Amino acid sequence: MRAIRNENLREEIYHQELENGINLFYFPKKGFTKKYAIFTANYGSTDNMFIPLGEREPVELPEGIAHFLEHKLFEEPDEDLFQKFSSQGAYVNAYTNFNQTSYLFYSTDNFYKNLELLVKFVQSPYLTDENIEKEKGIIAQEIQMYQDNPKWVVFFNTLKAMYQRHSVRTDIAGTVDSIYKITREDLETAYTTFYNPGNMVLFVVGDLDKDEILRTVEKAGKEYPTALEEVERIVHDEPDEILLKSVEERMMTSKPLFNIGVKDIQLGLKGKDAIKKDIVTNIILDMLFTNSSEFYNELYNEGLVDSSFGAYFTGKRTYGHSLIAGQSDSPQEVYNRIISMFRRPDRYITREAFQRIKKKEIGGFLTGFNSIEFIANNLTDLYFQDFLLIDYLDVLNEITFEDITERFKSHFVEDRSVISIIWPKIESDNN
Amino acid sequence: MEYTRKEIGEGLNINSTYTDKFKSNYLGAYIIRPLDRDEVTLNSLLPMVLGRGTRTYPETLELKRKLEALFGANLNVSASRRGERQIIKFSMEWADGRYTGEEGLDGEILQMFREIIFEPYLEEGSFSTKYLEQEKRNLITRINNKINDKRSYSINRCIEEMCKGERFSIYPGGYVQDVPQIDGKVLFDHYRKVLLSSQIEVIYTGHNNHMDIEGIIPEEFLDRKQVTYVPRETIIQKSQNRNQVIEKMSVTQGKLVLGYRAGIPYEDKLYNGLLLGNEIFGGGPNSILFRNVREKHSLAYYVTSNIVKHKSIVLLDAGIEFQNFQKTVDLINEGLRDMVSGNFSDEDMEIAKKSVRTSSESIIDSPQLMSEFAFGKIIAKDDRSLEDMIRQLEEVTREDVKQAMSKVNLDTIYFMDGLDGEVQDESN
């Protein structure tokens, strides 16, 4: 395997593209007991419309299909995978987000046996009409669990207000209606296209032997007749404009919750450019909305926000947004204050604040390296943006105050800002 | 890895584990209070006010900025429940100077930690009225926020109903009705009492064995004469209530919680049987309940059981359709009967052992978990090593599990139900 080293971080990572197309990475973590592997398909809830492998016409599948497939890959004809992993001392799990489906396990021993099992089971779907039907009840409960979570609802309402057509506005797990429409054919189409090894990456982290990892994965990896370069995904043209300025709903909560979203239009970046934009925007948000900022403290001291107030940016190739979240008795007033601040940020966007936040980011990143999960999950996320985690600190160090002011001007504008509010449900509403 | 423990005052100990494994240092101070209705709200409010300003950094803004300048040293304060204790905890995690390129900041961090706990910002010998009033408001919000997370809300409600009259039923976040009565003097007097009369455990995990951790405790707090040690909880063997509590709320999903008494103290040899039995019963995706309630009958997305170690209580919960209440309860009861009659496989035993083993072994990969583990051993007066604990679990037999599970008896069922007349999403 080829070694890629970063001197500042004193870490290295090994890479090899296997013959069948899987990209394999190993990140050594000496002295750690836990060993972790995460196998990911570049396929998330936003990839609902695509041209299936070997075909020419695009298809659109029911919402929630990537997540449904994630549940179903745990099905095997003759064994219970959860039990199999457990009997080998491993804890197995999976998750689906907007952009990826990941299968992971960690163990303290039998690592290679578990790794082999992981690679094999993700590459061998067992879908029957009966086991698909059975899963619908379980996923419906998962969806309903989220429907009772006000933080989840306020977040998705924000996305639905910001985006007019992009599939990021649909729920990751779909709706109870949409998942009941999913058929075996749909799942097979999605599987064949997105679980092609060329669309997958495997990260291994821990105190391990790189040659043994390579041998194990090569042995377990399936041969594929059709190598895939890149899946053709159809992304609806998303206008720069937002759909709605505000969206409100009532739920069982104690206090009004809000999310303020700012839609990004500087899209299409990848590699270092994408990561730099990401870090710059998050530094700005920290300069404004963490408890060390002047702006945060003004609102906090007036009782407009509490310690739940905070913000982050997320950016992918075809969409991106800043999200400012919290709870307040006067969410509209918080929104107004933020918009006025967007117009006159000079008191808050200062060189001093910038230097401070930059140091904090460096410390946070280094502390993250204590965690095998942090390393593996971030490696995966950044990999799909053509970036290697170990170079992150270098980009962070390069960022200047001018990058900050420039990005502030172009991104934080009223026209692309929305507010979503969840008001507490009043008992009489129900009677 | 090297562990040391040193008593520097009555009930005041410094515990250190030195290791080169991490890129950060972790320091925690655990103040142990009884979980008591009269002081629970004060204990909950106290760390919130202390986190606002210190002698050197009176303004919250300055304090937070100083932490950021120390490469984002991460300060956390909390008040939580451990059995019938309330733990006021302060912790700091900071990036190691060998990686940030600025060594020598450890001293500043320690000074900051000392000030937050022992040298708060004071006005006329008491807490700042501004900070106090703001944090009182924040505490009320925080307590009221319980309802936002329906799952943990339901678990808490089950505990309240089941443990009525026991300290364990006290909500560790405090009570809204207590808040208005708290003034600066009340809280400050309580604060002094807490520092002088509580058992305090300071726990460090990191590589710096030259750090003067003792130095964080001011002289005046070393002379401690009347330390109150919180006694071990009483354990109730048999269920008291046989309650069934149903609450109707405007929700989409029903939340079912079953509370059981196991009555096996953690000091008892049979406790390991309970640990494994619980794992097989509802511990994870390989459990009997997961296989039956979820995989076979598609009734739930999550169904899990957990042991409250210090009270020997088992709490089991699941999110289900309202109309599946009885069906789910029946399946759970059947699952427990299976456990008692030994209707589980040798493989289930092996899996449960491996699962507990894996999570135990992973503790030493995280400074926070190591700190929590060390603290857990201290309050349980358990001086076994991690290896000993794992080895003893390996020795548990099927008979132990059957015997332990036969003691598990249902006490209270709590169910968060939907409102009558509100239409639920139809599943098909």
Description:
The complex is a heterodimer of chains A (431) and B (428). Chain A is an alpha+beta fold and 431 residues long. Chain A has 15 helices and 15 strands. Chain A has 2 domains: 2-233, 2-Layer Sandwich (Cytochrome Bc1 Complex, Chain A, domain 1), CATH 3.30.830.10; 246-430, Cytochrome Bc1 Complex, Chain A, domain 1 (2-Layer Sandwich). In chain A, the strands form 3 sheets. A 7-stranded mixed sheet of chain A has the order 1-2-3-9-4-8-7, with helices on both faces. Chain A has a 5-stranded mixed sheet with strand order 11-15-12-14-13, sandwiched between helices. In chain A, strands 6-5-10 form a 3-stranded antiparallel sheet, with no helix packed on it. Chain A is globular. Chain B has 2 domains: 2-221, Metalloenzyme, LuxS/M16 peptidase-like (Cytochrome Bc1 Complex, Chain A, domain 1), CATH 3.30.830.10; 243-418, Metalloenzyme, LuxS/M16 peptidase-like (Cytochrome Bc1 Complex, Chain A, domain 1, 2-Layer Sandwich). In chain B, 39% of the residues lie in helices and 23% in strands. In chain B, strands 1-2-8-3-5-4 form a 6-stranded mixed sheet, with helices on both faces. At the A-B interface, helix 2, strand 7, helix 4, helix 10 and helix 12 of A face helix 2, strand 5, helix 5, helix 9 and helix 11 of B.
